[in-house]
Specification:
165 residues, mainly alpha, 0% strand, flat
């Protein structure tokens, strides 16, 4: 597989995961699920519930994304295009998703958000903290996606060199 093709496939997988996640958030009612959970297991703090709810929705979205990848790769293989085996493609996708999470975690830990926030307030004036963190996490995620694309590019080119040698 070509280097750019691998990165484009990864970005399309990431986009499909985002779309699936957004659709699940839209269609699965958190209020009804929260009421069911409280009726069944007892009281839980709402912010604890919301964190668990979002995590479960993300895990379901990842599962659906993997199932779609399996189906698409199987169809391509059936048409004699011969890409990777479906299980190899899914393992690669999950490892790339894990590397994105690790890169985002390191960036969140290393980038001084409070210093940047105070600098921004000094330079441009008051801003709501929620608005700041929405933009801040979006920029960090975009930087993490860019770094992950570079890592995929480098690792794929190194693997190509090792296979051709």
């Amino acid at each position: 597989m070509k280097l750019l093709t691998h990165i484009i496939i990864w970005l399309l997988n990431l986009l499909s995961l985002y779309v699936i996640y957004s659709l699940l958030i839209y269609f699965v009612s958190d209020e009804k699920t929260y009421s069911w959970y409280v009726d069944r297991y007892g009281v839980i703090m709402e912010n604890q519930w919301y964190g668990r709810y979002m995590m479960i929705i993300m895990l379901v979205a990842i599962f659906i994304s993997c199932a779609l990848i399996w189906v698409i790769v199987s169809v391509y293989n059936a048409q004699a295009y011969r890409v990777m085996k479906p299980i190899n493609h899914i393992i690669t996708w999950l490892l790339e998703l894990l590397s994105l999470s690790i890169i985002f975690t390191f960036l969140s830990f290393l980038v001084p958000d409070e210093k940047i926030f105070s600098w921004y307030q000094d330079k441009y004036g008051m801003m709501a903290e929620n608005e700041w963190y929405d933009g801040y996490t979006t920029i960090l995620m975009l930087v993490a996606i860019f770094i992950n694309c570079l890592l995929i590019w480098i690792l794929t080119s190194l693997c190509k060199k090792n296979h051709s040698a």
